## 1
Amino acid sequence: MAAVSGGKTYHHGDLRNALICAAVDLATEGGPERVVLREAARRVGVSPTAAYRHFEGRGELLAAVRDHARRALADSMERAAARTPGADDPARAAEARLAALCRGYVAFAVEQPGLYRSAFGARGADTEADTAGVEVRAFTLLTDALAAVAATARPPRTARPAAEAAAWSAVHGLSLLLLEGPLRRLPAQRRDDVVESTLAMVVSGTRAAR
C-alpha cells in the first residue's frame, strides 16, 4: 500500500501504512535525519513495541520513506510533462517533454527538500526490501524521453551512450546546488533563469548527439 503523507490517525489493521505516513511527514519537515521509528510511533499513538512488529529498525522505515519520496519525485516529473502544451512537430514535442520532465525534477527538489534528500541521501535505507522499480522510475522517464528525442530527430538517430546518466547528473547536480550549494541564495527569478539555462543545455546536448 502506498503511503499518503498527512495521515495522522491510526486505523486498526493499517498500522504499517500509518507509520510510513508519519515517517514521511517527519522527512518532509526535516529530511531523513528526522525519521525515527519511536517518533513515528508516538505520532500515530502506538507503543514502540507495536511499531517494531512492522519494522525491524530505523533503516527499514527509512527505506519505505525513500521509496515514497522517489515515487513522489517521478510523479512531479510526470505532472510537469502533462502541463506542457502539445506541438504539431514531433521533434519539438519530444524536446518539450524532456525539458518538462527535468523541470519537474528540479521543482520537486526545491519545493520538497526534505523528501528530496530522503529519496537519495537516506543513509541506512539500503535494505533487502529495496524496490528496484521505485528506484529507477525517474531515471526511466528520462531514458524514454531521450529515446523519443532521438527517434523524432531528422534524420532519426540513436541516443548517445550514457545520455540518460548525463541528463540525470545535470538535473540532480543542479538540484543539490540549489538546495545546499552556492546557488541556494539566488533570488527566485535568477534561480528560474539558471534552471531554464540548464534544461536548454540538456536538450541541446541531445540535439547535437550523433
Note: The mean pLDDT is 86.
## 2
Amino acid sequence: MTSSCDIAVIGAGVLGLAVAADLRARGRDVCVIDPGGANASSVAAGMIAPAMESLLDPGAAEPVNRAALLRQARDRWPAFAARHGIALIRDGVDWIGPDADGVVAQLAALGFAAERTEGGVFCPEDWRIDPVAALAALGQGGEGLEGRVAAVQPHGAAWHLTLTDGREILARSVVLATGTAFPELPETVRRAVDRVQAIGGRLAFTTRRLVGRPARFAGGYAVPLGEGTVIGATMEAGGLLVEASGLQQTLLERACEALGLAEIGPVEWRTGVRGATADGLPLIGEVLPGLHLALAPRRNGWLMAPAVAAQTVAGIESRQTG
C-alpha cells in the first residue's frame, strides 16, 4: 500500500526536525521518516557557538567571512526558539586554554566581543540549548514514520520513497536530512552527496557538575547538561574508529588539566557520526525539482539549524507556489 504526504523529510536530526517544524508552522503537511534511536544531534552538547567555532575550527572558508556567516546563523536563534518553544541559554563561554591575550585579540579581529578574566577569557557571544529537550520541542505535534528509506526516485511530478520494509510513500517534495547513510538516489543527487565525509565523534557524560557555564580548552570542551557535564569531543575522520580508547583517554586528560582536576570519575561515553563537506558548511539546496538537501553541518548542526531551515523552506515554498 502506498501512502502520500505533501513533504517528506528524511532524517530526524536537528536539521531535519528544524525544517519540518518551520514547514508545519506554515501549515504544511509534513512527514518525518527516521529509523529512531539516538543520533548525532541528540548526543551533542547543544552549543550555538559562532565565536569559538570561528576561533578553533576555521575550516576552508575565509575566516572573517565564515565568522560573519556563523554569527548571522546564531542571530536567527531567538526568533526560532520562541517560535518552537525552545529554551535558549545565553550564558556565554569561558576560554581556559593558553594565550588568553591572543585569544581576545583573535576574537576581536573576527568581530566577537571578549574580555580577559582571572581564569582566561569570557566571551558572551556563544549560546546553547539542551539538545534532547530541543529535539522534543521541534518534533512536537508532527507526524513521524519510523523506518529507513531504501530508495528515492522520481515519479512524475512527485517523488516515490521505498522503505526497507517495503512500505511506499509518494511526496510532492523531499528533504534529505540524513547523516552519512544515504538511500539509493538519482545519479545527480548521488554525485552531490558524494562530497559528504563521515566524521565520528565521542563525548563523555559525567553526573558531576564540573562547570557553571560552557568552557573551551585546547582540544575539547566541558558543557553543563542537566545536573551533569558533557566533555567532548573526538573528531574521527571516516566515522567512528574501531579502537578509540587512546582518543578517549586523551580527551579526559585534557579536560582534567584544563579544569584543574585529578580525575573526572566514571563517565558514560556517547557517540555519533556527522556529515561534513570540505568547507565545513552545510550542503543545502534543491538538486532536482522537488528534492532538497539539508545535511552535512560538520559539528555546527545546532548553530546552523534555523538558517538551514529558513533556506530550505524558502526553496520548497518557491517551487510549490511558483
Note: The radius of gyration is 20 Å.
## 3
Amino acid sequence: MKITLKIWRQASAVAEGAMATYEVTDITPDMSFLEMLDLLNEQLIAAGTDPVAFDSDCREGICGMCGLMINGSAHGPDVTTTCQLHMRSFDDGETITVEPWRATAFPVLKDLVVDRSAFDRIIQAGGFISVNTGAAADAHAVPVPKENADRAFLPATCIGCGACVAACPNASGMLFMGAKVTHLGLLPQGQPERDARVVKMVSQHDAEGFGGCTNIGECSAACPKEIPLDVISTLNKDLRTAMQHGR
C-alpha cells in the first residue's frame, strides 16, 4: 500500500503548528496505524528529518495513550484505539489527515502529543476510595449484588484515552468523569465519599477548562470501550443529591 499523510507538526507547546504532507510506501494491510507511523518515522530519520512525535505505550488497546484524530474521527474510522486500528481500514492511495486531540484542557506538547494530565487531576480530586490497606480481604467479605457488580464493571473499563473529549463539540470530559463516578458509586466501598467525590471531581473538571455536556452523544459513539451515555445521567443525579445534602 501507498498512502499520503497530512500530519500536524508542531515543534513545541509554544511554537506555531502547521500541516505537513508525506508519502508512505511499503505499507501492509495488517500493519497497525502506529506501525505505519513507525514506518514513516524510519523514512524521515533516514532522510535526516525530525520524526513525528506521538504517544504510545502498550499498543494493546488498554493504556489509552495513543489518541489521534484521524480523518476527523477520534482514533479513526473504527470504534477502537489507534494502536488497534489497522491499515486494512484504508484504501491504497488514500489521503489521511492526522491531528492531535483539540481541547483547551489537552494542550499540544509536540506534533501529535497532548498533555492529558487534566484527567489525572480530576482523579486526584476525588476519583478514588479511602480504605485501610493491608492484607487482601476475603473474597466475599463485602457482598456486592451481581447487578451492581456487572453495571460497575462496564464504566470501570474506561482507559482515560480522551476520545470522548476529542469527539465532543464542547470538549467535555463528562463521559470520562461519569464512568469514574458511576463505577465507584455502585460499590459499597465507594459510599462514604460519594457526595464529596462528585462535587470535587466536577469542580476540577470545570477548572481544567473542559466544556459542558449538551447530550449530543458523540462521546459515547467514539469511546473505544463503549462506555454508555447514561453514566452522565448517573453523574448528574449524584451531583444533584450531593448539592441537596449541602456538600
Note: The chain has two domains: 3-110, 116-130+144-244.
